[in-house]
Amino acid sequence: MTNSGFAPADLSTIRQMDEHVVHPWASFDRPNKSRTIIGSGAGVYVYDDQGNRLLDGPGGMWCVNVGHGRQEIADAIAHQAAQLSYISPWSHPTAPAARLADRLSSVAPGDLDHIFYTTGGSTAIDSALRFCLFYNNVLGRPEKKHIITRHDAYHGSTYLSAAVCGKPRDKNWLDTQLDQVHFVSSPNSYRSAGGLDEAAFCQKLIAELEAKILEVEPERVAAFIAEPILASGGVIVPPVGYHAACLEVCRRYDVIYISDEVVTGFGRLGDWFASESVFDITPDIITCAKGLTSGYVPLGAVLISDRLISNVGGDGERGAVFSNGFTYSGHPVSCAAALANMDIIEGEGLLEHAREVGPYLQQQLSTLIDLPIVGNIRGLGLMGCIECVVDHDSREPLMLDYEVGNRIDVHCQKLGLLVRPLINMCVMSPPIIIDHEQIDELIRVLRLGIERTIDDLKKEGVVGGL
């Protein structure tokens, strides 16, 4: 038995069995049969099918916040499964779900005291949007159903959550419901500012949001949805004051503000939630998942303000029922895992730790700007992105049939690092337990991986003059 968690003789069998698995974002005309099998993990590291140690740069998928192999969470899961594995959330409360709701409301900003449980991030977004539609039906405003979202946004892959995503490639082959969804510009200053300074760019974005609401008509716009940082869109950090100004516009026109904190919650930016502490807003709704359990088991949640709940409650004559839910809403095992996860974050001071190491990660990432294909480096806290370009002056994205991000990832894996490739970008969101020495390791290997990719591109004649 190796560090990978299984015997080498098992590998060929596992690969054959994996051919039955349809992986997310599968390409059926170009199946990838060379995926790296991961067998075990400890702290910020995972071990591949050969027993090689790899620093988990993406933190799973933005989610393994407290790191791999936490026995406390495994024990909580086992104990709860043995005590009560499941009971219908329609009929019976459970202690883990009640305790977690109380704890989430205690750390949430403002009056976001009502918790609706889901199975993950996509279903949390779906439920938040459905609540907005329900809300306006109950208030007798059946026309107020339109949603405003942003280009470059990612909010999930269920039918309704996918409709508010703004990544064009995700819509190439799948239909989405677009009749009531409207897009405004991405707050990507590297690509969209057009020479404006930060303040002017922010004003332009806010004016566009207000103009879009007026164009659709305020009586028809139900909600505006925004990630505090656009994560899968390329770790896009908006201009200072952007979210507060967006919220002010939404308040002016009675538009519900949904903050999608599926990625930014539970320590990634140094607090339980980033909306208030980092971006100075108290939204109407917050969605979360990922770091809620540090990825150990699936769980999502929608945090809804007292104001919204009180507006649709208190009148028994209406009989308004929010007919939305899931078999595994508030699953007791998942809620037990979340409570253990929050115990670790609080008990080990990981929020404070993230606030201390986050700036160091950003500082060290910035040292890679001297590499000739690195056009932009951006991020905040324990989120970062390297965007590759043909050259610094043109900013033309370096996109190949076999995308450059994938090439960098292949080289980095050979050197002991996982990164998450996104076309011409590589993103990082390591476990929030990462320390300075491990950040140095991440940067050292990432530099080598990019340098080796540059060497490949030179040999192929893809880019010259480097």
Identify the CATH architecture of the largest domain: 3-Layer(aba) Sandwich
User: Which strand order do you get reading across the main beta sheet?
Assistant: 4-10-9-8-7-5-6
CATH homologous superfamily designation of the largest domain: Type I PLP-dependent aspartate aminotransferase-like (Major domain)
- Counting DSSP E segments of at least 2 residues, the number of strands comes to 15
Average of pLDDT: 92
What fraction of residues sit in β-strands?
A: 5-15%
CATH class of the largest domain: Alpha Beta
Q: Helix fraction? A: 25-40%
Structural class: alpha/beta
**What profile does the largest beta sheet have?**
7 strands, mixed
Instruction: Give the uncertain stretches in residue-range form.
Output: none
How does this model look, in words?
The chain has helices at 11-18, 59-62, 71-83, 95-107, 121-138, 159-163, 189-192, 198-216, 242-252, 274-277, 306-312, 332-347, 350-366, 404-415, 436-460; strands at 38-42, 45-48, 53-56, 114-118, 146-150, 181-184, 221-226, 256-260, 285-288, 300-304, 374-380, 383-388, 417-418, 420-422, 425-428. The chain folds into two domains: 8-66 and 350-460, Aspartate Aminotransferase, domain 1 (Alpha-Beta Complex); 72-347, Type I PLP-dependent aspartate aminotransferase-like (Major domain) (Aspartate Aminotransferase, domain 2, 3-Layer(aba) Sandwich), CATH 3.40.640.10. Helix content is 38%, strand content 15%. The longest helix has 25 residues, at 436-460. The chain has a seven-stranded mixed β-sheet with strand order 4-10-9-8-7-5-6, with helices on both faces. A four-stranded mixed β-sheet has the order 1-2-3-13. The model has no long low-confidence stretch (mean pLDDT 92). The protein contains 15 helices and 15 strands. The protein has 466 residues and is an alpha/beta fold.
